[in-house]
Please model this.
Amino acid sequence: TWRDLDEEHLRLSICKNMTSVGYEVTIGEPKTNKGCRNIPLDPGTLATLQALREQHIEEMRLWRREGDVESEFVFCRENGEPYHPDLISQSFERAVKASKQPRIRLHDLRHTHATLALQAGVHPKIVQERLGHANISITLDTYSHVIPAMEEEAAAKVAALFMPSDPHE
Model:
């Protein structure tokens, strides 16, 4: 929701999730019972969210009908009601198919984010916290395919501390 966005500190609080079982939507607590987790945002993502909010305000102004309410949801219909999670997944699948790229599920973006973060050298503990995993072993077990390259890079970095790069030194 918009109130979960802290624009001043560039953070997004994840305090609830929306799920669909048998097309019935429920809003509840995230799987881990750790309460809210705060995710740092980059300035570009914040700017995108701010533009989305401005667009939504304008749409609400243009489409205002009896019974419409200001929406607390970031992603919602013109009347302020949230999109059904299945609609989002189906829209994503259509976009992937139209792109003629290999099939990927919406949830796979989460895995891609984690893999790229680990490959970029982001500490696994940070990746764990961003994903909301209850403990680091879940993160490391799930993304262990990234670890061998990281281990080789770590070995080279530690060796460089003790051995000069120029053999003539």
